[in-house]
Specification:
- The complex is a heterodimer of chains A (about 110) and B (about 120).
- With about 110 residues, chain A is mainly β.
- Chain A is built from no helices and 11 strands.
- Chain A has strands at about 5, 10-15, 20-25, 30-40, 40-50, 55, 65, 75-80, 85-95, 105, 110.
- In chain A, strand 9 (about 85-95) and strand 10 form a beta hairpin.
- Chain A is globular.
- The termini of chain A are far apart.
- In chain B, strand 5 (about 30-40) and strand 6 form a beta hairpin.
- Chain B is globular.
- Classes of the chains: A mainly beta (about 110), B mainly beta (about 120).
- Chains A and B meet through strand 4, strand 5 and strand 9 of A and strand 6 and strand 11 of B.
Amino acid sequence: NAGVTQTPKFQVLKTGQSMTLQCAQDMNHEYMSWYRQDPGMGLRLIHYSVGAGITDQGEVPNGYNVSRSTTEDFPLRLLSAAPSQTSVYFCASSSRGGVKEQFFGPGTRLTVL
Amino acid sequence: AQTVTQSQPEMSVQEAETVTLSCTYDTSESDYYLFWYKQPPSRQMILVIRQEAYKQQNATENRFSVNFQKAAKSFSLKISDSQLGDAAMYFCAYRRRSGGGADGLTFGKGTHLIIQP
């Protein structure tokens, strides 16, 4: 049971490049979320999903796209990277029932030059 | 929209002493969940303790306990017998129960806890 996995762990992009951050979970969780963490800002919600085929925007969605074709995977796409997207990105998942503790992946540190 | 406020950017405590981290929140919901997460330098987010708003009893997990004051919208974390391994960023987080709580957690900005040997 790997929990929540994220790839890559580190990435450097140039302004205008695109990339996809991968996230997968093997706990059969319905809910998945993407957060970004900036110094002094805590974690802020980018997008979330309540199940395959269903996604919605969080607090800071601009510049990011998501899709969810399977229960396990929830990739985050940067269409045209900007220096303001330099951050640490966390994927998280939780079950629909219960106390709804979120389980977090190890994070991806992204630098946009 | 709900907000979570951690008013202490940094706290320092001597090893084996007790420290309390503060958290206040604002919400119009009556039923919700509150969490404390720990983030060591490895950056992994680790759940420390959780509290369900409808439960009056304060949650306890070994050396970690909370003081949940629903009317005051306060949710502080007490760490007893502090250990060097407790050094980390600590985040207070809120999750509403309505709508299944699908829309994730709202986090405070964090408190950096330093343990002095």
